[in-house]
Specification:
The complex is a heterodimer of chains A (116) and B (113).
Chain A lengths: L3 E2 L4 E5 L4 E3 L2 E2 L6 E8 L6 E7 L7 E2 L2 E6 L4 E6 L8 E9 L7 E3 L3 E6 L1
Parallel strand pairs in A: 2-12
Antiparallel strand pairs in A: 1-4, 3-9, 5-6, 5-10, 7-8, 8-9, 10-11, 10-12
Chain B lengths: L3 E3 L3 E4 L5 E7 L5 E8 L3 E10 L2 E4 L7 E6 L2 E6 L8 E8 L8 E2 L3 E5 L1
Parallel strand pairs in B: 2-11
Antiparallel strand pairs in B: 1-3, 3-8, 4-5, 4-9, 5-6, 7-8, 9-10, 9-11
The chains are: A mainly beta (116), B mainly beta (113).
Chain lengths: 116, 113
């Protein structure tokens, strides 16, 4: 079975500082997609950022960026200038390409605490 | 905005009851999913559907069944609820034809007593 691993159950950061959340995955495919989702206390899962495996350039979305290392099967999320509203559970997820019907495999999640 | 709506945010049921969790999406998505979320385990796929009346088992289908009679609606059924099915249940949908992410409902926290 394909696996996605988040080795940091909890992380904390001071407001305005930078934090990096780690994610590694297992795959034999060349075509796949990687995502970071945020789940705040409201429980609504929100897409943070997406990376297509065939793209070498790391994705960025405002204060969020990824470090995608395809050979190492690593996909970390960097949050810059952390804000109190960034406090949430963060999930890394992988979607296979082809006829996978869009199934996502998730990591265990990392709880991020932001200190004022 | 894409909207995925789950019928209940909180549900308390007794052991042995038949439980229905309903999910409706309004974006004409082909794919729909039911995930279970437990602490330390992340989200695990129970069942998914890629078309009306079509269903496929996910990673943890035991004790569950699903129904998709209409494209917009995907139901998760616990035939005889047990305490080990106490969990958070998340419904999601995605497009088959577009390379987009999955969109999630707000979750149903089910407690079986």
């Amino acid at each position: 079975a394909q696996t996605v691993t988040q080795s940091q159950p909890e992380m904390s950061v001071q407001e305005a500082e930078t934090v990096t959340l780690s994610c590694t995955y297992d795959t034999s495919e060349s075509d796949y997609y990687l995502f970071w989702y945020k789940q705040p206390p409201s429980r609504q899962m929100i897409l943070v950022i997406r990376q297509e495996a065939y793209k070498q350039q790391n994705a960025t979305e405002n204060r969020f960026s990824v470090n995608f290392q395809k050979a190492a099967k690593s996909f970390s999320l960097k949050i810059s200038d952390s804000q109190l509203g960034d406090a949430a559970m963060y999930f890394c997820a992988k979607k296979a390409g082809g006829t996978s019907y869009g199934k996502l495999t998730f990591g265990q999640g990392t709880i991020l605490t932001v200190h004022p | 905005d894409v909207k995925v709506t789950q019928s209940s945010r909180y549900l308390v049921k007794r052991t042995g009851e038949k439980v229905f969790l309903e999910c409706v999406q309004d974006m004409d998505h082909e794919n729909m999913f039911w995930y279970r979320q437990d602490p330390g385990l992340g989200l695990r796929l129970i069942y998914f559907s890629y078309d009306v009346k079509m269903k496929e088992k996910g990673d943890i289908p035991e004790g569950y069944s699903v129904s998709r009679e209409k494209k917009e609606r995907f139901s998760l059924i616990l035939e005889s609820a047990s305490t080990n099915q106490t969990s958070m249940y998340l419904c999601a949908s995605s497009s088959m034809t577009l390379n987009t992410e999955a969109f999630f409902g707000q979750g149903t926290r089910l407690t079986v007593v």
